[in-house]
Amino acid sequence: MLRKLREEVLDAALNLMKYKLITLTGGNVSGRDIETGYIAITPSGMDYEKLLPEDIVIIDIEGNTVEAKWKPSVDTSDHLYIYKHKPEVQSIIHTHSTYASCFAVLNQEIPCASTTLANEVGGTVPLAKYAPVASGDIGPTVVETIGDKRACLLANHGVMAVGPSVRHALVAAVMLEDAAKVYHLAKSIGTPVLLPDSEIQKAKDVFLNIYGQDK
Ligand SMILES: O=C(CO)[C@@H](O)[C@H](O)COP(=O)(O)O
């Protein structure tokens, strides 16, 4: 069931490897089916390269198994909490991507100094307060922090990216890492100039309303 969504989730997981956002299985991907409300999520601790679409776990919004060969991600309850509290979110991607995670371990948000970050994430990347892995507390800290952004940092941990589709969540995760790298490198040779709110809004609007083939 939900073959297309399972393929999209697996494809995004493989792209996390392609774009070097994860090491081994240090991340996870999920997507929500708009019709049934079911969630397709990567299984826990399994190599994405060896997975087939049918290995992606299908659960309902309460976490009950709908169709599964494996245990779902250890972060499943956090994904479910985000879906429950943010109806506009249809996909969630968790990574420990290197440059963004540097800011997470410094407990610093990533200021918006590039149009890329404004376009794809919606501005400064906020920092969600620390929550232990698999405690069920990560979802609430993300919902508390993320607002209308497409990503937030998890203190001392990594990144949570979201989107209205699996593709959008993947783009947010990839471009956030790219912008974090640029900001980090720029800071090592000078003082990055931050974008004013008015420019962030303009850059965000272009991507919401003009960019791409779907508008
Ligand atoms: O952050 C952590 C553990 O530190 C987890 O997100 C894992 O890195 C991925 O777990 P699974 O999704 O494979 O269960």
Throw out a few tags for this protein.
8 strands; 215 residues; binds 5-O-phosphono-D-xylulose; 8-stranded mixed β-sheet; single chain; alpha+beta; L-fuculose-1-phosphate Aldolase; globular
Q: Which helices and strands occur, and which strands form pairs?
A:
Layout: H1 3-18, E1 28-32, E2 39-41, E3 57-59, E4 65-67, H2 76-85, E5 91-95, H3 98-105, H4 115-120, E6 127-128, H5 138-146, E7 151-154, E8 158-163, H6 166-189, H7 197-209
Parallel strand pairs: 6-7
Antiparallel strand pairs: 1-2, 1-5, 2-3, 3-4, 5-8, 7-8
Helix pairs in contact: 1-6, 2-5, 3-6
Residues 25-28, 42, 44-45, 73-75, 94, 133 line the site of 5-O-phosphono-D-xylulose.
